Amino acid sequence: MKSVTKSIPLIVTLLACAFLLIPIIQSVLAGLTVNYFRGLSSGLTLKWVGQVWELYSGSIFLSIWLALACLVVTLILGVPAAYALARNPGRASRILEEFISLPLAIPGLALALALLQLYGTLQGFRTSWSFILVGHVLYTLPFMVRSVLSVLAAIDLKSLEEGAASLGAGPARRFFDIVVPNALPGILAGALTVVTLSIGEFNLTWMLHTPYLKTLPVGLADSYASMRLEVASAYTLVFFVMIVPLLIAMQWASARAQRIVQ
Amino acid sequence: MTLTLTNIAKTFPGGTKALLPTDLEISKGEIVSLLGPSGCGKSTLLRIIAGLETPDAGAKIVFDGEDVTHQSVETRKIGMVFQSYALFPNMSVRGNIGYGLKMQRLPRAEIDSRVNEVIALCRLDAYADRSITALSGGQRQRVALARAMAPRPRVLLLDEPLSALDAALRGQLRDELALLLRQFGITAIFVTHDQDEAMAIADRVAVMSQGEVAQIGTPEVLYRNPATGFVARFVGDAMPLEGRIEADRLHLRGGVLALPKPADGSEVLVRAEDIRIDPEGPVSARVETVTFLGTHYRIALGGLAEGPLFALHTGLSAPKPGEDVRLSIASEALLILPRGLAA
Amino acid sequence: MNQRHFILLCLLPLAIFTLAFLAIPLGRLILASGESDAGWGIYLQILQTPRYLSTLVQTVVVSLAVTVAALAISTTAGLFLVRNRFRGRNVLLSILTLPLAFPGVVVGFMIILLGGRQGLVNQILPGHWVFAYSIIGLFLGYLYFSIPRVLLTVMAAAEKIDPALEEAAQTLGAPPWRVIIDVLLPALSPALIAAGAIAFATAMGAFGTAFTLATDIDVLPMVIYTEFTLSANIAMASALSVVLGVVTWAMLLIARSFSGEAVAAGG
């Protein structure tokens, strides 16, 4: 009896791991084998990765550029706003936080439709990368605000600021000398989340992109639909190599910020 | 119930010895306290008795002649009060207290009557149908006790049951708990790091240090005849008199004290209440600080031994800081104990 | 400049951005849904048109099934990982949280690798085993990205449970299965409701996975996409988006209220 109750959870855990891991391994192998259908015996090659680089390096760089631009914008918009929300923890702040969190709840497709209907006719804006950037900021901003807000809510911000004010620091000085340094763990966790999510964002981007502006995930969808399995796998492999370190860093930073909150 | 523990030891994975082989016998209706600093092994011993930890091979736990060493927790019929109380937040006060009886599959009517009985005894009538979250700390403690007692366990185990309360409440509940345990007439083991708690509640106290029982006895015995320097320090805050011992003479910096017996190689300790300010006294010291504490003054004395010694002084006035005073200590108040490694 | 003005200034950039790119566009979307000949009756039309209604039902059914499966798997695995420390535990935990950052398209590709025409299952097993493009593929894809999300929520909640609660139930004579029913599941229930709502909402709105699998069954996001791009039926696409958005938003509101309560109860 005891061994059964103990072994079922283990088996479920291992099966779940296998379900998640096996296709990842498959895609890594498929991206590196000469002919996936014949298997590993056909030999290993970097040919497919090279082909991906030729075909899609533009989309990779566009994604990195968008992610960094998205980071800058969310920092400028999000950090001061989180501070303002932390200093005024009232009903209005709750409603505003809830409202900017809507993009977490509403599917990206619906948001993209909304943006397209309002701004789709502004040709200069519609066809520029900044249109995609708006979508990415919309989606990632709540993560930045919440991450910073949770750290600021956990420290006694008011006393710290009163202390600085009693020493003669004005509001702007206090923001940069007291608020930002104390919020750093939250800012770091938020920043890594923003970059990770921006690089992987598909639902909004697919609707907002133009044929000349393909991001990495858009390119992935393109390769899944039109390329041979080995190229699609190699491209997925490139994506993994980019996203997995970011994910690990993001989890580390979030755990670190979480410890402050508790 | 009589509880017999033989050769109980616990080595944690990684080799840390939390508990060295320990024997203990507790008679029916007796309340024994396991007293010691954190990490001394007292909680480990309690959890082994409960069945929540497995002792090293060779241990034997006997409840009234029945060997329960290999019985699992849920079949051991023990009652336990946890430090955090561990009350089930999804059940009412009544639900918590009746849970153990429900596990025994007693008929509904009997559960109700026994729950009511315990509720009355613990004076919880007014809160019986409240949610756990609506209770104060003291009320939670009583619910935890009632829940542990309702199934009529063979032995009641209490793990620091007062430490979650604030200081003012703790003293009051300590006496209340002592009274309730006596009313129940149950064999109980009570883990604490607080000597006042142990002395107020227990019939016998086992002082533990570094995984071992240093001494077990009634509070009076522990206080008056401590077996080791550790026990003397932990129970009643004895202070060492650092000096040179020659036969029955203790040479301190400020003078020579007569010892009741030759004590070469031993350690001499004294309690603050046994140091008297006495113009005729054999040793001199300098008053460093004086603190007025209402019933007495607490005086820090320097120049007598290594580091300051404290004396309790009663009277209408006290010497001033900086004054030189003479002291006497009755020779029977000096505790002469083997010099151990245990600090 | 005083404190009040400074705080307002801090909010200003966010307020402008949110107004321009969230509030007004969403308002426009809602208005657009009423601009067809049917007017606001378009929402009634969704329920009366078999194609839209069956899509809605199918989406809800798949999402519910995924929610239940993800809760069962992740709760079992999560509790196991919280209560056992062993060599390799961190590796298992990393594997189980890895898909967190995968976009829906990649998840779809993972399912194709498992159950597509050139998929693993079809290669290993004799006969024809292609399930990636059916409702099963969709279910597995949604399950793929739901497991990590639910797992993290469950584990965070399980770690906050006082281990003495389980021990207390044991000392009172409760066998292991009763400890799970009487102590663990009640203590976890706010987290389970929150995680379930998140899983459900995510599955309802998932577009990338369905898009990559190009399944033979219709789910709501795919129908919105085809209405908008192929049929140019802007009003219907908008109306369906509004319905989808309201449903997912309501689910997440439930999730937040429950996880909020859990936090408050935890101390």
From TrEMBL, chain A:
Tagged with keyword Coiled coil: no
The record's section on CDD domains has:
TM_PBP2
Q: Where are the transmembrane segments?
A: 60-86, 98-119, 131-155, 175-199, 232-253
Please name the SUPFAM superfamilies in this protein's record.
MetI-like
Compartment(s) of residence? Cell inner membrane; Cell membrane
Primary residence = membrane
Q: Which UniProt keywords apply?
A: Cell inner membrane, Cell membrane, Membrane, Transmembrane, Transmembrane helix, Transport
Q: Which InterPro entries match?
A: MetI-like, MetI-like_sf
One GO term of the cellular component aspect?
plasma membrane
One GO term under biological process is: transmembrane transport
Q: How does it sit in the membrane?
A: Multi-pass membrane protein
What is a single Pfam family found in this protein's UniProt entry?
A: BPD_transp_1
According to the entry, every stretch annotated as the ABC transmembrane type-1 domain falls at 60-250
Give the record's family classification: Belongs to the binding-protein-dependent transport system permease family.
Name of this protein: Putative spermidine/putrescine transport system permease protein
Q: Which organism is it from?
A: Rubrimonas cliftonensis
UniProtKB/TrEMBL annotation, chain B:
Q: Which domain of life is it from?
A: Bacteria
Task: Specify whether Transport is a keyword of the entry.
Answer: yes
A single GO molecular function term of this UniProt record: ABC-type transporter activity
- Gene3D superfamilies reported in the protein's UniProt record: P-loop containing nucleotide triphosphate hydrolases
Query: Pfam families under this entry?
Result: ABC_tran, TOBE_2
Q: Which InterPro entries match?
A: AAA+_ATPase, ABC_SmlMolc_Importer, ABC_transporter-like_ATP-bd, ABC_transporter-like_CS, Mo/tungstate-bd_C_term_dom, P-loop_NTPase, Transp-assoc_OB_typ2
Residue stretches making up the ABC transporter domain: 3-235
List the keywords (alphabetical).
Answer: ATP-binding, Nucleotide-binding, Transport
**GO CC annotations?**
ATP-binding cassette (ABC) transporter complex
Q: Which family does it belong to?
A: Belongs to the ABC transporter superfamily.
Per its record, how is this protein called by name? Putative spermidine/putrescine transport system ATP-binding protein
Q: Which organism is it from?
A: Rubrimonas cliftonensis
From TrEMBL, chain C:
Span-the-membrane segments of this chain are 56-82, 91-115, 127-145, 191-214, 234-255
Query: Which GO terms are recorded in the biological process aspect for this UniProt protein?
Result: transmembrane transport
Q: Which GO terms describe its cellular component?
A: plasma membrane
Q: How does it sit in the membrane?
A: Multi-pass membrane protein
Any Pfam family: BPD_transp_1
Q: Which residues form the ABC transmembrane type-1 domain?
A: 56-255
Keyword tags? Cell membrane, Membrane, Transmembrane, Transmembrane helix, Transport
Q: Provide the primary localization.
A: membrane
Family stated for the protein in its record: Belongs to the binding-protein-dependent transport system permease family.
What protein name applies here? Putative spermidine/putrescine transport system permease protein
Organism encoding this protein: Rubrimonas cliftonensis
